[in-house]
Design goal:
With 299 residues, this protein is α/β, with parallel strands linked by helices. It has a single domain, classed as Aldolase class I (TIM Barrel, Alpha-Beta Barrel). It has 12 helices and 7 strands. It has helices at 25-37, 57-69, 86-98, 117-131, 143-146, 152-161, 176-183, 198-203, 214-230, 233-251, 255-267, 284-292; strands at residues 8-11, 42-43, 104-106, 137-141, 166-171, 189-192, 208-210. The strands form 2 sheets. The chain has a 4-stranded parallel sheet. Strand 1, helix 1 (25-37) and strand 2 form a beta-alpha-beta unit. It is globular and about 50 Å long.
């Protein structure tokens, strides 16, 4: 199945937890449907924002199954499947692809540091072999968290050697020059991991962005892209300033607990504030303080 770029904003959906720390499937499904209503073109379950590395393989499969069973088209899902070994990453990736997911988003093996590009290439080559020829992978470059990254030279090599399997990359480096270099790779789908460089990325051929704050502000980010696509540059730039302010305000706090607390405040369901260790929930008072700095959430 060939994957066309999703043109617009993709949300790396937050993972809600019940008070006993189990996945709150009801909140998860409701939030996913709301994200599509707000203008998301796809969602990416179990990225960093979804506390992926705190969620087990079977838990992830069950949650994605619940999304599909609720009527969400799996062809609009790009689940995160990156673990630290080929066997587990391949098992999770295979399960997602078998459900009909558009692709999977995969971290490099991040436990061993200081590894060579040759070693990383070998890892992904083995992973593709373990998943099968129908593997569809977005690489996930997030060196501020994973430390181990996927440099543009490696991304280009993997895409050249496996053009049907390594189809894109999410660049959460926060380094615009790195994103620019990735956008020069012919045929590679490149999403910046933030809306901050969105207009610059669109001008260089990016189809949109995958942004954590789409969990709260998807409609506003989608409006920037719509204005750009309509040719109204002035409106796009004005709207972009608003979404950049929203993003920078939220990221001054711990972004995952902050967004969850904001959802708890906005919806009245306090389960939204729950996080899994080692993260710590944002105090309710702090959530109200942050909420006062932001436009009213349309929930």
């Amino acid at each position: 199945m060939a994957v066309r770029p999703f043109r617009g904003v993709v949300a790396p959906i937050l993972t809600p937890f019940n008070d006993d720390s189990s996945v709150a499937t009801d909140l998860y499904v409701t939030h996913a449907h709301w994200l599509f209503e707000q203008g998301c073109v796809a969602i990416a379950p179990f990225g960093t924002t979804g506390e992926a590395l705190s969620v087990g393989i079977d838990e992830r499969i069950a949650a994605i199954t619940a999304l599909v069973n609720s009527g969400i088209d799996p062809a609009r899902l790009i689940p995160g499947t990156g673990l630290t070994n080929v066997a587990d990453t391949a098992r999770l990736s295979r399960a997602c692809l078998d459900m009909g997911c558009a692709a999977v988003m995969t971290l490099p093996p991040f436990y061993f540091k200081g590894v060579s590009e040759e070693g990383l290439y070998d890892y992904f080559a083995q992973l593709i072999g373990a998943i099968g020829d129908d593997a569809r992978i977005f690489l996930y470059h997030i060196p501020p968290i994973a430390v181990v990254g996927i440099p543009p030279t490696l991304a280009a090599c993997l895409h050249e050697d496996f053009p049907q399997q390594v189809i894109g990359i999410k660049d959460s480096s926060g380094d615009w020059e790195n994103t620019r270099e990735l956008l020069d790779i012919d045929g590679l789908i490149v999403y910046p991991g933030s809306e901050l460089p969105l207009l610059e990325a669109l001008e260089l051929g990016a189809p949109g962005c995958i942004s954590a704050t789409a969990n709260l502000n998807a409609a506003a980010i989608a409006a920037v892209i719509a204005a750009y696509d309509s040719g109204d540059t002035a409106l796009a730039r004005s709207l972009h300033e608003d979404v950049k302010r929203f993003r920078t305000t939220v990221q001054d706090y711990a972004p995952i607990p902050a967004q969850k607390r904001l959802l708890a405040v906005a919806t009245g369901d306090l389960r939204w504030a729950n996080v899994r260790p080692p993260l710590v929930a944002m105090p309710e008072e702090t959530g109200h303080e942050l909420g006062a700095l932001l436009p009213q959430l349309a929930l």
